[in-house]
Known about the structure:
Elements: E1 3-6, E2 13-16, E3 22-26, H1 29-35, E4 40-46, E5 50-54, E6 57-64, E7 69-76, E8 82-87, E9 93-97, E10 111-113, E11 129-130
Amino acid sequence: MTLEATCCCKQVSITVSETPVMNSVCNCTNCKLRTGSAFGISMYFKTESVVKITGETKVYNLWHKELSHEQNRHFCAQCGTTLFWYISTMTHLIGVAGGCFVASDVLQPTHSLNNSQKCQWVNFPSNWQISG
């Protein structure tokens, strides 16, 4: 199985060869700001499952104060879509924006993280693991 995620203008893509280790919805303020939405969908893969990355990305680094880690976010130099990122406390994983897997069947998330910051009008399935 391979999954390909692309940016909005299709100039940057990342292809992975395995299913995600974790597929979650994150309700933290940082993910809301990153996506411009009520939450972010974050799919985490083993770094060795990355088959290829194409196109030019730019990187911005930030210190995630709420979770005490550094993130290195790669975004398309053309359209600005944040496509993937690395987190200092999870060096064996790469995070990929779940909404960028438009050409593939995106696997349903199984976790909702930082639920204390969830928009009150958002509800998730009862079989999901809920934390924070």
